[in-house]
Design a protein that fits this description.
Length: about 40
Amino acid sequence: MPEARDPLHLREAQVVIGAWRDHYNRVRPHSSLSYRRPPL
């Protein structure tokens, strides 16, 4: 069983996931919007 998690790795993961989520929701084209980006 793993020991306590390294806070640096956790923070790095949070940053990467946050950037991916932002791109997925705000930057990439959405099929429901006729493959346009959502308005910001």
